[in-house]
Amino acid sequence: MLELLQRGIKTTLQDGGRPGFRHVGIPASGAADKLSFALANWMVGNVWDAPALECAMGGQHFRFHKDTIIALAGAEMWAQINGQNVENFTAFPVKAGDILTLSMARAGCRTYLAVSGGFKDGETFLGSIATYLPAKLGGIEGQALSTGVTLGYNECEDKRQKIPKGYTPKLSRHAVLRARPGPEFDSLTRDSQRHLFISPFFATGATDRMGSRLKGNHIALETPKSMISSPILPGTLQVPPDGGTILSLSDAHCTGGYPRALQVIRADRWLLGQIAPGMAVSFQRCFADDAPIILKRKNAFYADLIDGFSF
Amino acid sequence: MSMTIKPYGDDAILMSMNLDSYNDAVCRGVQSMAVSLRQAGTWDDVVSGYDSILVTFNPTKHTTNAAQELMASQLKAANQSPAVTGKTVEIPVYYGGEDGPDMGVICKSSGLSQDEVIRLHNERDYLVCMMGFIPGFTFLSEANPLLHHPRHDVPRASVAAGSVGIAGWQTGIYGLESPGGWQIIGRTPLMIFDKSRDVPFLLEAGDTVKFVPSETGGA
Which ipTM was obtained for this model? Predict the structure, then answer.
């Protein structure tokens, strides 16, 4: 079993999520950065969506009580086993008694810890063990893991795989997201429309799996209008009346009441999970004809490596 | 008022009736269309709001143009067939007292007695217009205009699960305990969302809610 010696900033059990229930108010949840999560599972020979630990922001310390093979993928967190450096985006064996420490994230926000054979624990709800904190769904009693918690893992075989060149995301302190104008984009002032695509925003401390409040240039409507609450998706950038912006992430509300300025394209939404407080976030205008081509090529590239995975 | 159907990002299409304020006929039509769209089985998600429906799809299966045309034709077909209605659910409510801490506020602003407020609140059948922002939160159709009241300026840190409230022209039910700014006039002992139940969701958009006053507080 795996023992959490220090819970770090936030640690949750996640899988591929529970899509298809937004009409009853349940977001898909699951790994916020599906790409790093899938790579972590792939490196230890698991199916891409096997349950893994999502370690947000860093600070987690673990002790392994049984030999196994693990993989780390995601944010740069200076990982060490018993004080010896281990590389991000690699898989390696650990022995009973080994201690894994993750330092605070230097680039990106979330690192995934996968164990060969997968974790045994976790409550299933609507076919997924993904932890959704606001309604206490999935995971271990629907909560973030606390210090002292132990998780069982299955017997493993050494099925380690090394990620070939070109597949590892290069995370930095600046997330650049391609986006399409949202339904209310045309109602924004000219300056706001321009600022959205040319100036960087910064993620504030109000950043979690639901969303990230960004600060930057004042974004406003040409004429204020009261919105009737309407559906939103992960990757929707909303504009509340204070002129700030809110970027929805994987646990976002299913509906919102603010104008929707932008929608991040599907191929780039995995990167939303790597936005940490203080990081710069920029939006690049993506043309309507380009988005499906980008997605198709990216899907085809990763499908060669990870069975069943798509963005 | 006019219907628009437009792409939303690269994997969703948004239909909007572009309302400025609540319109009962339009909202009922939207819910009926959403139920039909869900039954069509074409879409990954069919999320309805008061005056809009968002459908999501996999862009490697449909082009945006094809999805837009498909949604338009499904909406047209839904509009031409009889309205689809959801189930009707009776919701018992303990009005006032500890269960409805803002009952006094509504009595004062409406100039009505508590009994009159209760009568006006449950004489209407309400349409479930939207679920979420959190699981179980039920956004209902317009309350009697005499009961309209703005939200609290400062939201409460915690509103009990099952609380029935008023926000502007809306009335609704808190499915889970959560922070919230609605004026709470009562509470139902029914769990709108219960993850341990075989059917976790008591209500879906398109259903009809009948509030039934209950005698004694259950808190």
Answer: 0.94
